[in-house]
């Protein structure tokens, strides 16, 4: 996945992330301020990433919908015949919401709602009074820009009665703000039924799209096999919400179709829908010929597919898990289904407010080398992605993955400082992960990389000769950094303290050449408790031994006793 953005210093950066059924991993961020970001540049960049990861492991490339990215995507598909380029689904839906926001009734509701929120949140007394009456906030920052607008409209509609009670209360009427023209204008909006009618219309015509956005932006399960059906159901639900009158909903459908049919919809979406067991066994299964593509006879085969457990767990398991569990009777189809159903639809992980470079490039840390800065950004990004993945896995069905309470995603509504990730929280263990189930069989046994503290016995083994212990690390079929192998498990070198055994700089250089280290860092004894480790693919950290303090010889002067 790739996306371009600019930081506070106007540097043009391109994020590269890798997604698989088990989560998303930040690979690197490339500064492209001096580059002309045309199709050729984007193609060469993405082509290099495909080669680095391994072209046999890449199923699709997801980018935003800019013309340069689109052209580069088609160039990639021409070169790599098995690879697909797809536009970001979250970006497409966000653009749909932006276009809907220009419709007269939507524009009227959004503009007045923004006036209300700005007035309330810019005056502390009014804000305190609102919280007293409503017992909740009315602004709901979201991870997607234009989703914030409609989530906030829904929140305002939810507290309509408390707001009306507030602006008709004696506290408000007797206050200084209640007598000012600005306050009276807001009061008129709150007590105007036409305003609430426009808010209701805007919500009814966008709520199904917000649901699709939740689907593609959440990380609880890959969304590729659900988006085709979700978009069809969203259109039908919008028509139902608007009274099934074509004269009313046709304008909204046209905006959706212009993005879905022309930009977003791909053959992968239809194929993934067809392979999704939840829809294949559903009574409402689509009979559109587009979905069949010669695969239907495979799905009708008995074997594991006919088991009661296979049918009873269709709605409980994700499609990827279902095929892994019950698809053994058709191994080739199982492999194909897992590859397709495990795909993401969105590159919203790239589009979020990445401020890590801004955090790293502070006045106190602006002397960091490029290697060390990129390594620090790599660790911080992946720590955030890991935390987000764990948080999303713990979400209940009624939790909203779009809502992000601590992120200010839209200055038009509310500004909330983003909490900076303390550097002291970054630990070497933050990137330790398990080898994915099913991949260890190709490159060795599945090895758990749960962090542990090196013991004294390990230190004794290293004392026998750290250099002689260095051997090639376990090879994995996936070369990108999601598969981080803890070298301590192979006794190659020990980085934990106090059991770490320091070696000389000369030994370290030889060690670096022997094991093919991608990074070599020397740390003084004062920083050994907070090792500045570099993670880029397989990691080898070499510690410089502490300098031995020279002991002063005590002068031995002869003394005589008188």
TrEMBL record:
Residues 445-457 have a biased composition (Low complexity). It comes from the Eukaryota. Residues 438-461 are annotated as: Disordered. Residues 316-380 form the HAT C-terminal dimerisation domain. Residues 1-116 form the DUF659 domain. Pfam families: Dimer_Tnp_hAT (PF05699), DUF659 (PF04937). InterPro entries: DUF659 (IPR007021), HATC_C_dom (IPR008906), P-loop_NTPase (IPR027417), RNaseH-like_sf (IPR012337), Small_GTPase (IPR001806). PANTHER family: OS09G0499600 PROTEIN, OSJNBA0013A04.12 PROTEIN. This is DUF659 domain-containing protein. The lineage of its organism: Eukaryota, Viridiplantae, Streptophyta, Embryophyta, Tracheophyta.
